[in-house]
Design brief:
Layout (H helix, E strand, L loop, with lengths): L22 E6 L6 E6 L43
Antiparallel strand pairs: 1-2
The structure holds zinc ion.
Length: about 80
């Protein structure tokens, strides 16, 4: 298998604050095919507010993963090896 060494650039973005603005998009909803407009911070939305009503970010998705306690596994040696 041929191989070669390439140079990979390093990108460093420091944490920073940035002011962003909402934009009003005029678009056709993918679900109801109705021309609509929607104000959003992000990219062009796909659905109107009827099909995808704006909602607060779900808190359930922020719930941290269960902390798994390492269980000591004990192997019972009651297998009869003396066959
Ligand atoms: Zn719609």
């Amino acid at each position: 298998m041929p191989s070669k060494i390439i140079q990979v650039k390093e990108y460093t973005v420091r944490a920073h604050k940035r002011e962003i603005h909402t934009r009003v998009f005029n678009f056709v909803c993918k679900q109801c095919d109705e021309p609509t407009k929607r104000e959003t911070f992000g990219p062009r939305p796909l659905y109107c507010e009827k099909c995808r009503p704006p909602q607060a970010p779900k808190k359930s998705s922020v719930v941290p993963l269960r902390k798994r306690k390492p269980r000591a596994t004990t192997y019972k040696s009651d297998v009869d090896l003396a066959n």
